[in-house]
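thread from #wetlab-drylab

HS: before we spend reagent money on co-crystallization trials with guanine, can we at least see a predicted complex? here's what I'd submit
DV: go for it
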Amino acid sequence: METLLLKGKPVLDSIKEALVPRVENLKESDIVPQLAAILVGDDPASHVYVRNKSKAFERLNCKSKTYKIPADTTEKDLLELIDSLNKDIEIHGILVQLPLPKHLDSKKILNSVSPKKDVDGFHPENLGLLLEGSPNFIPCTPSGVLEILKYYNIPVSGRHAVIIGRSNIVGKPMFALLAQKFEIGNATVTIFHTGTKDIAFYTKQADILIAAVGLPNMVTGDMIKVGADIIDVGINRVDDDSEKGYKLLGDVDINSVMGKANSITPVPGGVGPMTITMLLVNTIKSAEKSKKYTLDYC
Ligand code: GUN
């Protein structure tokens, strides 16, 4: 069996093309979609991610302002910054880069972002709406996965989707999306995690396998079903002797599934670049809403 590589680039190119006229439309009303990204501390991977975000926004004539905050900032100062951004009419999306330093209460910080500007979709109100079946902002990585499934015509309805990992960022919202009667959804969904006893028992039943655990090469060819469609969300930095000093590996050992899987997203170049594109989608959507509801937007 030839295994199809589900690359992110053609998917995000088609999404961005559709965003261009929407940005132009907003410009006619003097609105430029703007993201405020808050980066606390100096986690190198987070710095790369935030820099890539800024570039993607600028390329689409949108704005992205980064707030670099020292690692020892107080919760009070961070909450004050978020409060001022909630009230700023020119800011349409607020993103707090995770993980936050240990002394900060992540839940409290994320809950302080206005649900109207919560382009990450992490606020309990937005997570609740998603679970209820009427999503407002959908978390970016899971919605990027749906776009990949849609673009490559991977059937979802009636199939067994198995999700590895129960994070709030990927696993849980991915479950909420795939299990519902949405255009891309209506799957039978199993979600497993560190409490699961026989991992391979579940992975072998997966028509669609979504790996989001952060363990390099955790899934190997002997653990999958012939013809499975595999979405690898893992981006793991593994030290090597290259110039950079590391390479990126997914949660799936791609070489061992080639020829057995129907398709797989590569790492890098699969799900990763989709996340930033979906952030653009959410920020532009928020800007469009701000136009309609100028009076109660902030
Ligand atoms: N850290 C890893 N992924 C994400 C994401 O999608 N959003 C935020 N805010 N932080 C992250």
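DV: The pocket of guanine is lined by residues 95-98, 120, 140-141, 169, 275 (CB under 6 Å).
HS: ok that's useful, forwarding to the group
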